[in-house]
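In response to a reviewer's request, we include the raw inputs and outputs for one of the modeled complexes. The two entities were modeled together in a single run.
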Amino acid sequence: MVPEAEFRSYYGRPIIKEPVWTWEVPWYFFAGGLAGASASLGLGARLAGNDRLARAAFMVAGAGGAAGVPLLVSDLGRPERFLYMLRVFKVTSPLSVGSWILAALGPAAVGAAVSDRLGIFPRLGRAAEVVAGLLGPALATYTGTLVADTAVPVWHEGGRELPFVFAGSAAASAGAAAVLTTPAGDAGPARRLVVAGALLELGAAQAMERRLGELGQPYHEGPAGRLARLAKGCTAAGAGLVALGGRRRRGLAAAGAALALAGSVCERWAVYKAGFQSARDPRYVVAPQRARMARREAQKIEQ
Amino acid sequence: MRVDLPTPTVREGRHGPPEPPRTFGGGYDGQARPRLGFFTDTSVCIGCKACEVACKEWNLVPQDGPLRLTGDSYDNTGALGASTWRHVAFVEQQRDDQGLRWLMSSDVCKHCSSAACLEVCPTGALFRTEFGTVVVQPDICNGCGYCVPACPFGVIDRREDDGRAFKCTLCYDRLRDGLEPACAKACPTDSIQFGELDELRARAEQRVAGLREAGVAEARLYLEDSDDGIGGAGAFFLLLDEPEAYGLPPDPVSTTRDLPTLWRAAALAAGTLAAAVATAFLGGRR
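The model returned the following structure tokens for the whole complex.
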């Protein structure tokens, strides 16, 4: 726990506001990550001449991109004004940057999938694949910066690792979705992506918790704690089963892929819930600020 | 035709002759306007909540949830929010040497120089006015809610039945007509002082020095420094205890100050993801 000593508050009330976001947001983080990483996987498969994997990956990317838009829109207080997101482009607002990325990648991924499936406008389809594939990593990681660019302590202070957690989680989910939708003989790269993504996600989450120290307590208690443990368990077990199952034991690989997808969902929900728990307790706001003031004071004395 | 507007003057006192009408004009006519703001001197706040009422009346702010008693002294307002733009805090302190003391303080949006709410707003609904204040345009806000957790003071919030974000406008409409904000106008003790920020800062320095001379050693200014984590506030305070006793953050920092680092991390993570995908194809398709 953050130390009790010298901690004061106004009737224990929160200092910052809890986010007003609802369930759509963590699901959007998952869908966006899945779509982004799948688009990159699809482009890689196309370049490697693995057309069956490319087709499956772009189908997933198209579905994820198509799901992301309504999720993002329905979370707005005024959904009918969703196009106002594209009034301006602001680098100081990760949500603005992300809206533009989604506005480009969503239609490109859907277009690529439709073109490939129906065999229409092949050249436009290939161009869409390139656009979606190149923007994919940005869509999968900007959401980490989105939550980090707030006053919520557990998000802001973990902001250097969060995009890596999301990148790993996105890679694992995209690999897993492709394992489930591609013939086993073509899914080698997807299986390797599940393992690489899981390692990145678990490592980055570990590094984040180490940096957060006492501020990271929300990841160890309450709903966020349960989700974080579930995410770690599912991701590790899923990657293990996918590696073990390989090309020959298809059932095992499929079970592993399903677990990896569940792990990816739980990871976003864990981060999301941890933010609320962190915002609710004024201790998490006051303690690091007091520590910062003490450090500044100590520096002044040294000089 | 260009009308020459009189220079803003700061009122001398409430009991003197009637104030001349003050005009701040506004408009971007190539002339820099002095920055306007609040100095809230909590040492003379009597907790009457006239500021809360005047703000609600003038700005037509609706009721903030069901009526309830909190049990926390006389504070049944709770906190600043979408429908509470002034909030009077009541702190009761039992001190061994001097007995019970009451601290009362009227809190408000700080109108930060480096305003996180404004910077993270994806639609441009939040903007900085010609008076240096931060205002939401209700016809632009689409209720994305990003400003809510971005504010280091927990000021701005979304009105759930309306869907948009609201907060103190520092009475933008009144300022444009040369009037002072409703809360400052209504404050019977001049705890809420309105004027040019530079002038208010000088006045606050004098006040805190005077209080200390009179033996109030705990008197301190909060957010008066333009070199702090929010680049200085357009609304600052004289407090009689540490900020957290009033529910205020002791060392607030605008989250966007770290955004270059955060974007760099995202770019590196995106690069790592791309590299992971590329590496996955090195082993062939099986």
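As requested, we also summarize the result in words. Chain A touches chain B through 89 residues (CB under 8 Å). Chain A has one domain: 24-295.
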